[in-house]
Amino acid sequence: MAASSQEACPAEAPTQIEAPDQVSLGEGDEPEEAREPRVRDTPEDILFEAAVNTIAFHPTQDILAAGDLDGDVFVYSYSCLEGGNKELWSSGHHLKSCREAAFSHDGQQLFTVSKDKSIHILNVEEGRLTKRIARAHNSPIYSLLLIDENLFATGDESGMLKVWDLRRDAAFMELKHHEEYISDMVIDQNKKMLLTTSGDGTMGVFNIKRRRFDLLSEYQDGDLTSIALMKRGKKVACSSSEGTIYLFNWDGFGATSDRFAVKAESIDCMIPITENIVCTGSMDGVIRAINILPNRVIGSVGQHPGEPIEQLARSPNGRFLASCAHDQRVKFWDVAPLSAMLVDDYRKRKKSRQLKALSRKAFGGGEDFFADLREESAGEKSQEGEEDGASEEEQSDSEDSDSD
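That's the WD repeat-containing protein 55 sequence above. Prediction below.
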């Protein structure tokens, strides 16, 4: 297994090591110039032979899994040392595209689902296939959510939701209330309410404790593509293919409480970084950091230039964000500074032609992006940023009591 995050990405360069191509020295000789590996801010990109659809971080080790368009699954150890990324194993058991991958909570198993309608469970240590459900759905599987050590949920292209119990090797819930594919799922802290987003433009609410369907939200514009719990579970954020983030109050799932239009072609994936900030991936290849209530585009974390982003994943220690796109690369971004950012309810409009770069590897995402950011550090406040220009609708931000 890989070393811990602190060891893999040290703050200081390691001690000098002998160059691998150096000839052996006689007794008493000293090398003319000892070399040491370069220490990077983030791990190097990982290049694949096919486009990567899904990525997942191991919960305790510096390991990342990736599933690609050909149905192959790869597991890598990653490191901030130059040349430190290593392929541990790969699996070619899926017959079609691998669409989702997730490590078990103890990190010993890797779950994958595929367009071939199958569910695979692999041993992480050896890469060995330990369980295969060949025809888990009648339609190609689109999404996967691990609930606890025994339960997991899958959603398919037809809108069917299944909740599985590993102790029974069978699904104990099979409900179809969406008209299109289930794009993403999330569950509350109590493991009771399962929320889904769908290509039909609705959010679904399912009570898995009582094994029942509760309701669908009102229809929104475009496909709902991803979902996240924010503000300590008081808010639910759903992204859309139209570039809008819809907000729901917890226990107010029928209608939106707010919406925020982001100047992006779409928001295809989204992941929480803090209780207030999410990172989004879009068809334009830009990864944006967005504050929720008050709604602000803070800036650009990174990019896959001109390549649609398929998925984002956050490392367990919160330092790295990984992204995969159609350029067949998995990239790593340092998002640790986002945890210290605070956004004001009140802002001075300041125009800028580019997104603010939030990491050393990021560059501006295009014209006409604006946001205002106030960052508080060591008792000093400095106002900076861009304004995304989207919104008369944002006036509701200051009225929301959850905005801190």
